[in-house]
Hints:
The protein is α+β, with helices and mostly antiparallel strands. It is built from 4 helices and 8 strands; from the N terminus they run E-E-H-H-E-E-E-H-E-H-E-E. A hairpin with a 3-residue loop joins strand 1 (9-10) and strand 2.
Amino acid sequence: MPDLRLSDLLTERLRLRALRPGDAPDLLALYADPEVMRHWIHPPWSLLAQAQAAIDEAQRDLTSGRALHLAIEARLDGRLAGSCALYDIAPEQRRATLGYLLAAPYWGKGMAREALQAMLGHGLGTLGLERIEAEVTPHNVASQSLLARLGFRRERRLPARWHVGGATRDVDLWAFTLACHE
Ligand SMILES: CC(C)(COP(=O)(O)OP(=O)(O)OC[C@H]1O[C@@H](n2cnc3c(N)ncnc32)[C@H](O)[C@@H]1OP(=O)(O)O)[C@@H](O)C(=O)NCCC(=O)NCCS
């Protein structure tokens, strides 16, 4: 099991830190926005209990080494700008999956790239990962542009991969592979 406890990851404008119970109202606001959740793997949340359960799970996953789920905080005012995660961590395979979202007011400012560069650096450096995957719906242009900018490559279409609110969705598998960048 990898030791996922970390000091905060700092970038020019952002602080990536462990989620804490007091984040629940802001996390709910983020995951309740239909625009943010348009291409997500589950429907928007509507209850504070959903945010609280996610934070509890993030804390358990941190202890078990299964996932590293971080708050993305704006350093300017300390507000929750988004969240990102390395989940399905398979240390023996040196592989994990990346997830991320930002609140709409933060879009288009290079902030996701800034946050994920730090997260990737941590995953590839401290955690010793060699392959980081991401699953993205084909219509999520912003997310695909972001991944391409970070050096991910689209590998293949996974048909009927997600079931979201009664609909079936195809998903594209993207991956950053260390071997391709050495
Ligand atoms: C995907 C998301 C995190 C991107 O965040 P962002 O902060 O706007 O992205 P950035 O500003 O860092 O942009 C990164 C790159 O993607 C490009 N990009 C961002 N949004 C874009 C859009 N709507 N259309 C085309 N390109 C876009 C940027 O131009 C930039 O490329 P560049 O550096 O070459 O200029 C954000 O749109 C979001 O939270 N969406 C909702 C949640 C979601 O779908 N998460 C991903 C699930 S797989």
